[in-house]
Amino acid sequence: MVMHRVNAVRVSRMGHFPHNPRLSTRGARYARMQAYVYKTERKADTFVYLAKRDDFTLVPEPLRTQLGPLSFVLEVALTPDRKLAREDAKVVRENLTARGFHIQFPPQADPTVRPNA
């Protein structure tokens, strides 16, 4: 008698596959969202996140003119628990869903801190 061994897939108690998000049984709010990040050459530390690569049609024309030429920086998978350096991933995801883009402006200088202090 020949017995065949079936490879079993391990599922965590949370009902998802942490090693493969495509097999996850979690709701859509936990789904990955791709974002494409561009930097502006005209304004330092200003970045544009797009829901679709090279799709600048959703960014209003006056804003595009003000930002100037944009160059591609990176592609990032956004999840609600993703940590970004200067932005809240949840806010970025909401803006990408509602508007198709998100603008990251440079951090505001803290008036209580004196430079060269």
Helical region count? 2
Helices and strands, in order, run as EEHEHE
Helix content: 10-25%
Give the C-level CATH assignment of the domain at 31-104. Alpha Beta
Radius of gyration: 20 Å
Content of β-strand = 15-25%
Query: How many E strands?
Result: 4
Please give the order of strands in the largest beta sheet: 3-1-2-4
> Which fold name corresponds to the CATH topology of the domain at 31-104?
NE1680-like fold
Mean pLDDT, to the nearest integer, reads: 78
Main beta sheet strand tally, sense and closure:
4 strands, antiparallel
Which CATH architecture of the domain at 31-104 would you pick? Roll
List keywords for this structure.
117 residues; NE1680-like fold; 4-stranded antiparallel beta sheet; 2 helices; 15% helix; 21% strand; globular
Description:
The chain has two helices and four strands; from the N terminus they run ββαβαβ. The chain is α+β, with helices and mostly antiparallel strands and 117 residues long. The protein has a domain at 31-104: NE1680-like fold (Roll), CATH 3.10.510. It has a four-stranded antiparallel sheet with strand order 3-1-2-4, covered by helices on one side. The protein is globular, with a radius of gyration of 20 Å. Mean pLDDT is 78; it is low at 6-18.
